[in-house]
Amino acid sequence: MDFEEAEDLERLKQQVIEQMLVIGFDEGATSELGEITLGFLRRDATQRHGVTRFHPGVDLKGELGPKNIRRVDLHRELLVAEWRDYGAYVLYHEYCHCLGHPSHGKDFRAIERLWGDDHARKMGRRFTDYLRQRNAVWNWLCPTCKAVHARRKRSNGRYKCRKCDSILVDVANSNLA
Ligand SMILES: [Zn+2]
Ligand SMILES: [Zn+2]
């Protein structure tokens, strides 16, 4: 992580913590969250946008809190202006885990809902699509219905469109409008 990325991550953290104080979280809890090391996921991650990593050997059924967290990793692309609001929501989601809720149970959902930005929450699907598209080198195009599937490899005439049974053709990513 370079200096600029570290600063960017720090700003995102401040944004989330300020919002959490507005929501009503107490300063003790938020300052503990602020101490947790932040990092990045692998560049080619698409499905996972953020991960909370507990210290090894922690009993996930016991009493948990920020002290049990080794680190939180976020997708780098969440720092891009376009995805920042979603990035704030993802970091908040991870902080909800850090506050002692390792799974997405009822207690977790109750806290998570306090964020109140439905728009940011729905952006998850779009962010995954965006990452897939970005990582893709080839688009498999159906010449009949024009459906396009972004993939890492060429299809080499081995795949058919599920809808119209036509053999898909390879189009390099940059050649598609
Ligand atoms: Zn989660
Ligand atoms: Zn088709």
- Radius of gyration from the alpha-carbon trace, in angstroms: 20 Å
Gross geometry: elongated
The DSSP helix count reads: 5
Query: Quick one: how many beta strands?
Result: 6
**Topology as H/E string?**
HHEEEHHHEEE
The hetero compounds bound to this protein are: zinc ion
CATH topology heading of the largest domain: Zincin-like
User: In percent terms, what proportion of residues is strand?
Assistant: 5-15%
Main sheet characteristics: 3 strands, mixed
Counting structural domains, the number is 2
- The SS-based structural class is alpha+beta
Poorly predicted segments: none
CATH C-level name of the largest domain: Alpha Beta
CATH architecture of the largest domain: 2-Layer Sandwich
Characterize the quaternary organization of these chains: single chain
Report the mean per-residue pLDDT as an integer. Answer: 92
Q: What share of the residues lie within helices?
A: 25-40%
Terminal-residue CA separation: 33 Å
